[in-house]
Amino acid sequence: MTQIKVNLGKRSYQIIIGPGALSQLSSWLKKLKLGQAAIVVTNPTINRLYGRLIKQALQHLGVELHFGQVADSEKSKSHSVCINLVGRLAQLDRGKGVFVIALGGGVVGDLAGFAAAIYRRGIPYIQVPTTLLAQVDSSIGGKVAIDLPCGKNLIGSFYQPRLVISDINLLSSLSKQQIRSGLAEIIKYAIIADKGLFKYLELHLDKLLQRNPKALQHVVQVCSKIKARIIEQDETDTKEKRMVLNFGHTAGHAIEAASGFSQNYPHGQAIALGMLVACEIARQLKMTPDSTIKRIGKLIFKAGLPTKISGLSLKDILQAQAHDKKFSAGKNRFVLPVAIGKVVVKEDIPQQVIDKAIKSRMTREKPSLSDYE
Predict the structure, then answer these.
(1) DSSP codes joined into one string, 163-232
(2) In whole angstroms, how far apart are CA 199 and each of 61, 137, 194?
(3) Where in the chain is the domain with CATH 1.20.1090.10?
(4) For residue 352, what are the contacts with CB-CB under 8 A and spacing of at least 6?
(5) What DSSP state is assigned to residue 331?
(6) Are 122 and 149 spatial neighbours (Cβ–Cβ below 8 Å)?
(7) Exposure of 325 by Cβ count < 10 A (0-12 exposed, 13-18 middle, 19+ buried)?
(8) What is the Cα–Cα distance from 157 to 123, expressed in whole angstroms?
(9) CATH superfamily of this structure's domain 179-372
């Protein structure tokens, strides 16, 4: 079992990583003393698989436990679902001291964390991520939000959890597509901060796709440490240090929104495409060697992630991108790679360069490994 501390003064917390980590929930709740009542926000599938483990962990603590189920879809990050959850918190509270447990992937974590942030101007919450993507990324750092129809995460806050428990055993039930979604974020971390991790992915991609527990634990630990150190330097995204975590997200979020947050472009797949768009922008601006761009594209392709955009129009993607909160004073802002393990933030990129980069992902040619040789 590994512990990684996110050092944020009074808002510091631990990330617990390992197989069976959920068994430590009870002892941590005794230490943290969060309250006498809790709502576990989850979806029906996760509740069926792991809800009983939460019940077992809390049954000896005398905590009044309730479950709030939401659909397993980005559409659950809506104002109506959020207000309904806040209403349930108010009903349960009644002086008991209520807290929230987010048991699920990124959607559940974002929704539950945001509800915890706005009820009574903030109540405690715990992240128990059940997807690879959530364990390596979204459960850490305190970015919580809900969506608007025109864009993703446009209503949000910075609100840190009191604890993150990344139980590697919970990843055993994931589909190949869900593993691939997580791999997109892991590839992102390798490109922005760790060329050693990138090499590990090139050598051990098959183990990760086969859900090898040791390989999964390794990448969760490495990515969690990278993100923890970045968050410590720039908790509220005001110094451009945290901005590097958005590599692939400017175009990626636009692709998600343009698709209507459909299952055709779940988050990881959209981010993979967004990284390729960013690489093409960097290539046009002569910031990155072609060999590096091909190496990135090859890893994304071998991970089984999409490399082509289909069923969406350039107009819709650009319209969604215009609402991106990473834009500053009317200027676009992209995170671009200059080498494996190093990125820079670039503003005010010519529109024709962006258009060309997105169009480069919209060709009708069938992608193949030879494209990256």
Answers:
(1) EEEEEGGGGGG--HHHHHHHHHHHHHHHHHH-HHHHHHHHHHHHHHHTT-HHHHHHHHHHHHHHHHHHHH
(2) 45, 20, 9
(3) 179-372
(4) none
(5) B
(6) no
(7) middle
(8) 13
(9) Dehydroquinate synthase-like - alpha domain (1.20.1090.10)
Range 2-173 classified under CATH 3.10.20.30: no
| pLDDT tens track, the chain, 373 positions | 899 999 999 999 999 999 999 999 999 999 999 999 999 999 999 999 999 989 988 888 888 999 999 998 888 999 999 999 999 999 998 887 899 999 999 999 999 999 999 999 999 999 999 999 999 999 999 999 999 888 788 999 999 999 999 999 999 999 999 999 999 999 999 999 999 999 999 999 999 999 999 999 999 999 999 999 999 999 998 888 899 999 999 999 999 889 888 788 889 999 999 999 999 999 999 999 999 999 999 999 999 999 999 889 999 999 888 876 566 566 889 999 999 999 999 999 999 999 999 999 997 778 888 778 7
| Cα–Cα nearest to 82, from 47, 114, 54 | 114
Q: What is each CA distance from 1 to 115, 163, 219, in whole angstroms? A: 30, 15, 14
Burial class (CB in 10 A: 0-12, 13-18, 19+), 328: exposed
**Hey, what are 139's tokens?**
């459960």
Query: How is 40-76 classified by DSSP, letter by letter?
Result: EEE-HHHHHHHHHHHHHHHTTTT-EEEEEE--SSGGG
Which residues of the chain are in CATH 3.40.50.1970 domains? 2-173
Closest CA to 43 of 77, 79, 93, 88: 77
Q: Does the pTM of the predicted model rise above 0.85?
A: yes
Short-list 131, 159, 129, 130, CA closest to 143: 159
What residue type is assigned to position 79 of the chain? H
Burial class (CB in 10 A: 0-12, 13-18, 19+), 241: middle
Task: Copy the structure tokens of residue 262.
Answer: 């459909």
Burial group, residue 359, by CB count within 10 angstroms (0-12, 13-18, 19+): middle
Contact 292, 340 (CB under 8 A): yes
Helix (H, G, I), strand (E, B) or coil at 335: strand
Name the pairing type of β-strands 2-6 and 163-167: unpaired
| Cβ–Cβ under 8 Å, residues 136 and 189 | yes
- Return the DSSP state at 264: T
